[in-house]
Amino acid sequence: MTAGNGIRILLADDEPHIIDFLELGLRHEGYEVNAASDGTAALEIAASFRPHVAILDVMMPGFDGFEVCERLKAEGDVAVIMLTARDEVDDRVKGLRLGADDYMMKPFSFEELLARIQARLRNQFPHLLGSVAFGAFRVDDRRKEISLGERVLELSPTEYELLRYLIFNRGIVLSKPAILERVWGYDFAGDDNIVEVYVRSLRDKLGDREHRIIRTLRGAGYRMDLP
């Protein structure tokens, strides 16, 4: 089972590099993804794909993001996140009035987009966010618990977020700055050695004395290898 747990996401943007970037990232997170380069194609795909979340660029050929949002909302239960390159209050107000659930300015952080997707899913589709297995680990977002085998790990809230982040990005080298931004927030003003402290604590709780689960790559960061 993957992190997405059967959750379907529709992307609609006329910039190919954005589509490619988001498709790759969201599929890596386990989501089912379908993409369109214009509003007309987005509506055609949505009719059979039935997305839980739609990420729509405001300015697209054919139907623009506002029209696609309005039609999707009229046809079923879908969470809509609008993307725009313009910081226009009128655009945000119009999108929200048409039923958009959230709004993001380009350029944006992929981690922030993931957080907003999760927020919409918790609000509209909480039944989809059950426990998810990754190798010997099981992550349960509803209970805020992570199990290793049959053992529920005793984790602080920050340890939970850090271990969850490492598990969901298994096999990828994560730098200290990336970990700090995702777990502690972009405005964290403390010492980045706090990451080492929490990784050491997690290793103790995982019984990872030889660092085979959470590996340190000197000068690069940390990588989670699933047991």
UniProtKB/TrEMBL annotation:
All copies of domain Response regulatory, residue ranges: 8-121
Organism: Cohnella zeiphila
Keyword field: DNA-binding, Phosphoprotein, Transcription, Transcription regulation, Two-component regulatory system
DNA-binding region coordinates: 129-226
Residues annotated as domain OmpR/PhoB-type: 129-226
InterPro entries per record: CheY-like_superfamily (IPR011006), OmpR/PhoB-type_DNA-bd (IPR001867), Sig_transdc_resp-reg_C-effctor (IPR016032), Sig_transdc_resp-reg_receiver (IPR001789), WalR-like (IPR039420), WH-like_DNA-bd_sf (IPR036388)
Location of 4-aspartylphosphate modifications: 57
One cellular component (GO) term of this entry: protein-DNA complex
GO biological process entries: regulation of DNA-templated transcription
Annotated protein name in UniProt: Response regulator transcription factor
GO MF term list: phosphorelay response regulator activity; transcription cis-regulatory region binding
